Each structure stands twice: as structure tokens, then as C-alpha cells.
Amino acid sequence: MDNKTRIAVIGLGYVGLPLAIEFAKKYPVIGFDTNESRIAELKQCADATREANLDELREVLNLQGETGLQLSAHLPEISSCSVYIVTVPTPIDHLKRPDLQPLLAASKMLGIVLKKGDIVIYESTVYPGCTEEDCVPVLEKISGLAFNEDFFCGYSPERINPGDKVNTLTKIKKVTSGSTPEIAAQIDALYASIITAGTHLAPSIKVAEASKAIENAQRDVNISFVNELALIFDRMEIDTSDVLAAASTKWNFLNYKPGLVGGHCIGVDPYYLAHKSESLGYKPEVILSGRRVNDNMGMFVANKVIKMMVAADKTIKNSRVLILGFAFKENCPDVRNTRVIDIYKELKSFSINVDVYDPWADVQVVKNDYDIDLLKVEPTQPYDAIILAVAHQKFLSFDFRSFKNQGCIIFDTKSLIDRNLADARL
Question: Which of these, 11, 115, 387, 401, could form a disulfide with 16 (CB 3.0-4.6 Å)?
């Protein structure tokens, strides 16, 4: 492939936008999203995800000639492209089953514009076999073309880490794969042209899909282990952070931290792997047990705080509790699959008045997705308890001491603040 290759990136969220910008420095790229308001926002060089380098976005939008980025919400405008990269979300439903609707909808849409010789590359996280068993049949049916004769596919799992400004797209080694050896080599060369950290060409699409699934399942299981330790040490009245600090003095100790496990990857991907495993007749005990532990941490935090309030002779009904942070991780606005919602719901079930403040999260997004009205300014009114749920750096300047002096109970789930300010830590 050369710089005359026209690339369409389908889906301009946390994954697609940085990818489109980087490719647009060397190729003509069309960034496509069905959300017209998102396209309008990006054309104004604004990005609600805060993942894009806005100077770079402005630069590629203004490039003329054989490189640069165009933005569109109209399908016919991407029909001239020869490489289509799909970066749509792959969530789970309310029963924790893989929800392939966005992925299959994107495949149906691409089937309309697919031509002989085109390549479709999927980056969305899926279970092994999904690209060839679920997506390819849709492409074939809609386009009327034959897989590996008229069109080809590849899989290159995204490794975007929201909020991380150090380990960015080009600095993370990229796994690539293709549906034939020749196409695999072309796809690998395409990504190698922008990824300075290098690429790893997997022997098959299934292997590449599996590599992504186990990356996050491994982290999930490791975090579930320390979360379970936190539950045990809480009963022993031992500070988990102190135990981890001591244990981490051994050179090969993996120093994972306890906490809420949400987001679009770690809290979701294990269910994709488990789904595929169960369809083949094997129930993955370790993966699912880790998920159960992690999914219950929000309830544990809420009930721990309630017990502390009872011990302090505070009336529970109609008490006031402040949750600091709603994003699924620190220093980013991403609230997808945030497990802070579990703390919120559990507290509300005790008729507690709960306020939530997050200087990163988008107020309207939280309202639309969770029906919660975030506080718009840093709160100063009295509270019976404060739960520090997300380790935003901005919370280091929060006046915890003033609240503590008023008798407020402070629970630090992230061991972020001075331990003398917290009544308990996770």
C-alpha cells in the first residue's frame, strides 16, 4: 500500500479518532460517523472525549492533496475508499452477553459500498472467530461479493488507554492479522507505517482476536484477586495498601491495586471470552469468578460506608453522601460502564441523598446515560460521608480536612489522599 490508498475509519470515538488523525498524516482518510453532531463537533476542532491532539486534528483537516482528513456522516462519501477500518463499540447487554449490534450494523453498512479488492479491518474487541463467523457473512450477503476472492478482511485490536497521554497510539505495539498471507502482510505494512513502536503480525485473525480478549481478562482476574484480598483484610482490620507495599518489595510481585473495575475493556471483554468458551461447552471458572468479585465491589464500598455511619451514630435515612468521581478511571471523561453507579444505587436504596461531583465527566452524558444530575461546581455544603471513588488528580486539592473537621466520614477507595484524612481506605 502507498499513500494513494484511501482509508475510511468507521466510528470516531476514543479509538477511531486518534487512528484517523494518525493515518491522515500519510494517507487520504475519511473519518465516518453516523452521529452528525459528532462530525459537526470535530469539524470545529473540538473533541468531547479529550483523546485527540487538537493541534494535530486541525493540521490534518487543513492538509491539501494526497493526505489529510475529511469528515462525513454520509455513506456514499466513503465509497471511493479501498480500506475500511471499523472501530465501533462492542458492549454487553443487561444480561452481560456480547452485544454485536453496532458491529453488525457497521458491517451491513459497509456491505453497501464494498467493491472488489477492498479490505475491511476490524479493531473492535470481540471473541475469537467473530470477524470471520459473524461479520464476514454479513459483508458477503449485502455486497454479493465472495470473501477472500473479491474482498478481504483483517483484525488489529485497539489498544487505546483513555486518559493516557504517555502510552498513545503510535507508542503501543500493534497486533495485526489478515485473512490471507498476502493481505496480512499488506495490513501489517499499513499499520507499521504509522506505529513507531512496531507491529506484531499474528498467524491468523482468530489469534489476534484472542490476544485482545486475554489482555483484559488477565488484568481483570489480577485485580479481582487484590479486590478479594481487600475484602479479607477489611475483616482483619488490616490496610490493604500497607500489605501491598510490603509485598511489592519482592522483585516479581505484581503490584495491582484494588478498586472498581469498569470501562469499555476490562469490565466487558472477559464476558466476550466467556461467551465464546461457553458456546463450545466449557464454563471458564476463573474468568467468571473474577468478574463476580469485581462486579460486587461497588456494593461493598457502599455498605462499608453505611456501617461506618451507623458506628458514628449517624442517621442513615435522608443522610447526605457525596461521591467524588463518576468516570470509569482517573483523569478522563469516559463514563462507559462505570462501576461508580453501583455505589450510587446501593446508597440510594437506603434512602440516602447522594450527590456526585466529577470535574471530568460530561454533565449531559451522565444525565442521558444514567439519569444522574452531576454537581456542576465543587460542593461546599455539609455531608455525612464522602466517598472518593475515582483518583482524579484534581481531587488532591479538594478540601477534605474541612469536611473531616465537621464530622464527615471519608472513605478513600483509591488511597489517593493523605491517609490521616481518610477514615478508611479500600
Answer: 11
Nearest residue to 9 (alpha-carbon basis) of 191, 139, 144, 151: 191
Element (H, E) at 274: helix 269-279
Q: Which of 130, 135, 153, 265 is catalytic?
A: 265
107/117 Cα distance (integer angstroms): 16
- Of 388, 343, 383, 14, the C-alpha closest to 164 is 14
Q: Which residues of the chain have pLDDT under 70?
A: 1-3
Q: pTM higher than 0.85, yes or no?
A: yes
Q: Which residues contact 351 (CB under 8 A, 6 or more apart)?
A: 316, 317, 318
Report the alpha-carbon distance of residue 307 to residue 290 in Å, rounded.
25
> Under a CB-based contact definition with an 8 Å cutoff, are residues 147 and 118 in contact?
no
Surface-to-core class of residue 96, CB atoms within 10 Å of its CB (0-12 exposed, 13-18 middle, 19+ buried) = middle
Active-site residue flag, 265: yes
Query: How confident is the model at residue 2, as a pLDDT?
Result: 62
| Residue 247: other Cβ atoms inside 10 A | 13
